[in-house]
Amino acid sequence: MSRYQTVSIIIPTFNRCQLLQEAIKSVLNQTYHNFELIVVDDYSQDGTLDVVKNFNDARVVYLRQKENGGISVACNAGIKKAKGEFIFILNDDDLLAPFALEELVKKINGSDLSKVGGVYGWSWWVDNNGRTSRIIDSRVRGYIFRKILRKHIFTNVLVKKLVFSEVGFYKENLRKNEDLDFYLRLAKNYQLDFIPEILTIIRGHKKEHLSSFSKNNILSANNVLKNYDCNFGIGRNILAIISPSRLYVSLSIFKNLLFAIIKMLLNHKLASQITFIKSIFKKQGIKV
Prior knowledge:
With 288 residues, this protein is an alpha/beta fold. It has one domain (7-283): Spore Coat Polysaccharide Biosynthesis Protein SpsA, Chain A (Alpha-Beta Complex). The chain is 43% helix and 20% strand. Strands 1, 2, 3, 4, 5, 6, 7, 8 and 9 form a nine-stranded mixed beta sheet that branches. A hairpin with a 5-residue loop joins strand 6 (116-126) and strand 7. Helix 1 (17-28) packs parallel to helix 2 (48-55) and helix 11 (245-266) crosses helix 12. The longest helix is centred in the last third of the chain and has 22 residues, at 245-266. The two termini are 33 Å apart.
């Protein structure tokens, strides 16, 4: 890497000041220091501004929206204000492993892919009691558009800012699965690479965690996928559509938990990463 490049981390937030505080803390504790953190307040009515002010760090930028426009609008506002060469979107209730930015920047600069537009790492999902509920540990790279159409591969990607001029910003008419839509456009035009380490911690809270498995969310994702796959068929998600909502949610949570347990039993390195990340956050006063 020829110089120390700037990463713009964007956290869109709405009425989650307590969780936001820990998300910001996880960013400020990164081993890679050349970043700006743009907190886009989507017209919150809680103590969000006070939380941001309490950090008193020059790298933290506060941007308040004039009205609640939704996550896509908030993300786009942050991207347009960003000064960095790389963009990373972090939800206000999620956390970054302390070495995440360092590893991502190193990989995107050192990738042997000819047209790499972004790099992702693995994600560790925990429920509101701090128990592992899911692990996404994909190992696909290159032009992976077709693979994204078939399954959930990743959650957070470090992208080159220049890609937005080609693939466009987040679609502001989408209130759900806006990231899926953007990643599909990104993958149609650019290659993606990955890092075989847990870099993002996805914290599920009862309502939000369950809604990610709901029929409404599945149908929303289906509508996005149909725009990119002319052969998209209802059979892909037939179980979600015909099953009673509560049953489908329960089955989905059980399946992800079972797969996570199997992955940790078979991969000692993966289990060790989780233990290591837990210990670091504990020292920082962040509950996981």
